[in-house]
Amino acid sequence: MEQLKIEDFKNYRFLSGIRHSPDGKNACFVVHQMNLEENRYDSNLYILNVETGKTRKLTSSNKESQFKWLDDENIVFNAMRDEKDREKSEALEEITELYKINIHGGEADKHLSFKKELGSYEFLFDGTIIATVSFDLNNRELLGLEGEERTAELKRRKEEKDYEVLEEIPYWSNGSGFTSRRRNRLALFNSDGSFKEYITGEFTDVESLRLNKSKDKAVIVATTFTDKMELTNDVLLYSGGKLSSPPLIAMNYGYAGFLDDEHLVLTGSNMLSYGLNENKRIFTCRVDGSDFRDLSPELDLSLYNSVGTDSRYGSSQEKTTDSGLFYFLATEGTDCRLKRIGISGDIEDVVSITGTVDGISVSEGSILYVGMKENSLQEVYSTGSAEPMTSFNANILMERTLSVPERLVLESPASHDIEGFVIRPAAFEEGKRYPCVLSIHGGPKTVFGNVFHHEMQILSNLGYFVVYCNPRGSDGKGNDFSDIRGKYGTIDYEDILSFLDKAIETYDGIDSSRVGVTGGSYGGFMTNWIIGHTDRFKAAVSERSISNWISMYSTTDIGYYFASDQIGETPWTDSDKLWWHSPLKYADKVRTPTLFLHSDEDYRCWLVEGLQMYTALKDNGIPARLCMFKGENHELSRSGKPLHRVRRLKEMTSWFNKYL
């Protein structure tokens, strides 16, 4: 077998978006693969016959990543294949083109054209289309403008691209750029794609849209604000051509869908006990908002997949309803499982694997899911068998040397045992001693599992032990365990270093004089914090980090509510506390050579956070290097451009090789 290499990324297939056809006989999903030569991801649609398990490729232009079933045998997807359409888009015209393709083969034909930029969309029972559209309060509406007026507005938009005017917070969003006075507005379109009317107001931002089974009603989660976005939002109902707001308890709602034609199922949190990271509950009510009740009073898990890996790509459905049951993903321990609940409130485990369920589709009891089992890449599975239905990644990892993550538990008398893993060097030999890298996850409310992680396997193949754990603040163990508000850098710091000590004590092969540390986002914060509080690490790689809670509060897309919630203060109520929890305060004590990796469009943990730490270390004579990735955002390590992801790993491994 050959040693795993950084560029082996290009051989992995990432699966996403699986959905049954209306009759349940087939399923469509997306297969993505890195294209290093073109520095992009190639994405195509595949069809799975649910009964036979046979899979075949449906599209081959490498650009199809969003689709919807039109009927049992036809699929529509967004595309810009016509040169004239591309020219219109480049001229800032608002345009969306839907193409239709039959699942039995043939060429895709243009199906519908919209003079708006569509986000999510659904076909109502009468052929009318309900959709979210990009709406910019900074511009004149193009609909209805003709001739010189239209030309003048398009010219003005082109000129205005050199400027940004901010009038509200948040004013930008990671992955979306500047967002001030921009909304996803709900609209109706006629069956031929022509615009009919707006349903929501100018200042309402629609977060999700779902239909009932009869396709004559829609439930919407939306936020309406001017100047400042709050964390509570609204659940709206579209029925009979009218939009209503059922009288529901004010909270932060996530999912909203139809449990059946008479009942809604909702996930939400009032954030009163554990702040914005509080686990959401599952509620039900009638469509008019009456009989509102908590279906899951004893459930204390996050209702999504928070198990981290750099080996996923694309979006997938994590919640759905079928036959009066609500299916949802939940992170439990170090795994992500599929569960379901009905109107009775009984919760059942549907898929419990060592690994993660990444995306689901359910049709009349037929359950398909994209999963990662143990130390392997994604495949499509059915609940009827433990074996995968697909084999996209079956032989890829078999040809490379890998090391299996070994579970390690740091027992605590305070009933908060810290779980984690140790990966040995791929060519490990008893009696030899090896350098070690301590890896810290983001969040902090996420979790490390034993799923395949390319970065960690690369380090293993280069001769490193890799140690990683889930300290207090992590997901998977309920609200009490994940709540570290006002404690950043204290109990979590203790847990991480104590777990490292446990690993060194357990594994004789770890050379404690050659240990490095790395992490991104919260892991970047913790890396910055660690190097300011101990000299035991010989090298550090800090990624998309936080260094200063005061600057983070006022410059990042979530800062004004995240910093005040997680630290417990604002710059005006107690700036000393924000500064006390800021790694920059302790930067003069750093003696560890540190590499900083940041993206210039990361608006979650903005570039300025890395620059401040980098400058402090350089000013104090500590070896430091900052590599900035242009055009990338907070998701660089997970969905950045392929060549950028390769460069990131080369920067990291070169730094550790130099100092460890």
From TrEMBL:
Q: For this chain's UniProt record, which GO biological process terms are given?
A: proteolysis
What are the alphabetically sorted keywords of the record? Hydrolase, Protease
Keyword Metal-binding listed? The answer is no
| Matches recorded under SUPFAM superfamilies | alpha/beta-Hydrolases (SSF53474), DPP6 N-terminal domain-like (SSF82171)
Residues forming coiled coils:
none
Q: Which residues form the Peptidase S9 prolyl oligopeptidase catalytic domain?
A: 452-660
- One Gene Ontology MF term: serine-type endopeptidase activity
The residue ranges crossing the membrane are none
Family designation: Belongs to the peptidase S9C family.
Q: What is the protein's given name?
A: Peptidase S9
Species of origin reads Youngiibacter fragilis 232.1
Q: What is the lineage of its organism?
A: Bacteria, Bacillati, Bacillota, Clostridia, Eubacteriales
